[in-house]
Amino acid sequence: MTYAFKLMDSPVGQLKLVASGERLTAILWENDKPNRVRLGAMIEANDRPILIDTERQLNEYFAGTRRKFDLALDFQGTDFQKKVWEALLTIPFGQTRSYTEIALQVGNLNAVRAVGAANGRNPISIIAPCHRVIGASGELTGFAGGLANKMLLLSLEAGQTSLEAAANVETVEGNRHAPQTPQAEHAPKKPARAASSRGTQASLFGN
């Protein structure tokens, strides 16, 4: 199978949008590891409708005018991975979940590590919001797009504008901690979580 791709610039770097037919298959990061998402041969196709629509919706998201995506998706992975990725789609804008909560949602509390591995291989970044999965203590933990971009996305969803959040990226790139800058005061160092993990939704808005 040959995949079609389109490149787009964004506040989190250049993204590669990938389609299989008329469905979105992947959104890859600028510095993505080559084998993180395994796909076949690709050709550039800037006129593919699904890729044009994906770019439009992503731009609206970064501009702060879109909270939910409406795109046909084609997840390619194991059955377990697909369950985890589908669970990601249920995390509302501005909220977070722990790996344990996702494991409970897919029906296997003992699969926390496997959930983490599947989360790390999520092929459709941002749309399937793996950036909304954080450590049980509120730590941001790892992220394929880099912790600076994870912070940017969470900050954007917490009400901080993309331009304000983008100002932090260069400061925190390569740094595993929150930036010690004035802008960082507006971004939660540890996204708010509810006291109970039993089906309770943690929210960056505090509700």
TrEMBL record:
<keyword id="KW-0808">Transferase</keyword>
<feature type="compositionally biased region" description="Polar residues">
    <location>
        <begin position="197"/>
        <end position="207"/>
    </location>
</feature>
<dbReference type="Pfam" id="PF01035">
    <property type="entry name" value="DNA_binding_1"/>
</dbReference>
<dbReference type="InterPro" id="IPR014048">
    <property type="entry name" value="MethylDNA_cys_MeTrfase_DNA-bd"/>
</dbReference>
<protein>
    <recommendedName>
        <fullName>Methylated-DNA--protein-cysteine methyltransferase</fullName>
        <ecNumber>2.1.1.63</ecNumber>
    </recommendedName>
</protein>
<feature type="domain" description="Methylguanine DNA methyltransferase ribonuclease-like">
    <location>
        <begin position="6"/>
        <end position="75"/>
    </location>
</feature>
<dbReference type="InterPro" id="IPR036631">
    <property type="entry name" value="MGMT_N_sf"/>
</dbReference>
<feature type="region of interest" description="Disordered">
    <location>
        <begin position="173"/>
        <end position="207"/>
    </location>
</feature>
<keyword id="KW-0963">Cytoplasm</keyword>
<comment type="similarity">
    <text>Belongs to the MGMT family.</text>
</comment>
<dbReference type="InterPro" id="IPR023546">
    <property type="entry name" value="MGMT"/>
</dbReference>
<keyword id="KW-0234">DNA repair</keyword>
<comment type="function">
    <text>Involved in the cellular defense against the biological effects of O6-methylguanine (O6-MeG) and O4-methylthymine (O4-MeT) in DNA. Repairs the methylated nucleobase in DNA by stoichiometrically transferring the methyl group to a cysteine residue in the enzyme. This is a suicide reaction: the enzyme is irreversibly inactivated.</text>
</comment>
<keyword id="KW-0227">DNA damage</keyword>
<feature type="active site" description="Nucleophile; methyl group acceptor">
    <location>
        <position position="130"/>
    </location>
</feature>
<keyword id="KW-0489">Methyltransferase</keyword>
<dbReference type="GO" id="GO:0032259">
    <property type="term" value="P:methylation"/>
</dbReference>
<dbReference type="InterPro" id="IPR036217">
    <property type="entry name" value="MethylDNA_cys_MeTrfase_DNAb"/>
</dbReference>
<dbReference type="Pfam" id="PF02870">
    <property type="entry name" value="Methyltransf_1N"/>
</dbReference>
<feature type="domain" description="Methylated-DNA-[protein]-cysteine S-methyltransferase DNA binding">
    <location>
        <begin position="79"/>
        <end position="158"/>
    </location>
</feature>
<dbReference type="GO" id="GO:0003908">
    <property type="term" value="F:methylated-DNA-[protein]-cysteine S-methyltransferase activity"/>
</dbReference>
<dbReference type="InterPro" id="IPR008332">
    <property type="entry name" value="MethylG_MeTrfase_N"/>
</dbReference>
<dbReference type="InterPro" id="IPR036388">
    <property type="entry name" value="WH-like_DNA-bd_sf"/>
</dbReference>
